[in-house]
């Protein structure tokens, strides 16, 4: 009997699930999906709630989710398990993540592609880390949509706030692009 309880605990997790557009989220138990080679299973500690989450749940987003749906794309947490081709993360690492394509972070755990996760220092609080993702996520999504490549030039019109600083940081340090500022 106890073995059955332990097995169930490890094969399921809880999530805030949207079953119908415009309705309230429900906390439900979900079966753990199988981990793909390039995915990482994260124990979610904090999940940011932002405009995209509210728009998608109300049916006003540019994508319509397949229901039932777990919202949440900006999060922080700890690595629980890694796929066979994950190279830069290990079990126990603290990370921030961006599940822009899959959402799914309003849960006790979620899966994320390794490329959408970044290690954070052990002394950074999970809530602060999750809040940081918003600016960086916006820049990362824009850079991917623009197909930003090494050597490209990025014009940042104002680098005084969080979004501008994130644009300079990611363009120069992640994409190795040239950054121009017209301040």
UniProtKB/TrEMBL annotation:
Pfam families: ADH_N (PF08240). SUPFAM superfamilies: GroES-like. Residues 22-182 form the Enoyl reductase (ER) domain. SMART domains: PKS_ER. Transmembrane segments: none annotated. GO terms for cellular component: mitochondrion. One of its GO terms (molecular function) is oxidoreductase activity. PANTHER family: QUINONE OXIDOREDUCTASE-LIKE PROTEIN 2, SHORT-CHAIN DEHYDROGENASE/REDUCTASE. This is Quinone oxidoreductase-like protein 2. It comes from Trichonephila inaurata madagascariensis.
């Amino acid at each position: 009997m106890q073995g059955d309880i332990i097995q169930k605990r490890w094969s399921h997790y809880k999530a805030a699930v949207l079953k119908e557009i415009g309705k309230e989220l429900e906390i439900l138990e979900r079966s753990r999906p199988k981990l793909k080679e390039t995915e990482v299973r994260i124990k979610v500690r904090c999940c940011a709630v932002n405009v995209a989450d509210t728009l998608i749940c109300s049916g006003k987003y540019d994508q319509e989710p397949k229901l039932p749906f777990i919202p949440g794309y900006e999060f922080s947490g700890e690595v629980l398990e890694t796929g066979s081709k994950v190279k830069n993360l290990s079990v126990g690492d603290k990370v921030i993540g961006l599940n822009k394509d899959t959402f799914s972070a309003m849960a006790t755990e979620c899966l994320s592609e390794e490329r959408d996760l970044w290690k954070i220092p052990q002394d950074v609080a999970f809530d602060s880390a999750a809040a940081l993702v918003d600016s960086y996520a916006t820049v990362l999504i824009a850079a991917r949509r623009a197909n930003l490549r090494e050597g490209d030039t990025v014009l940042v019109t104002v680098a005084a706030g969080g979004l501008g600083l994130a644009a300079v940081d990611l363009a120069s340090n992640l994409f190795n692009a040239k950054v121009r500022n017209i301040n």
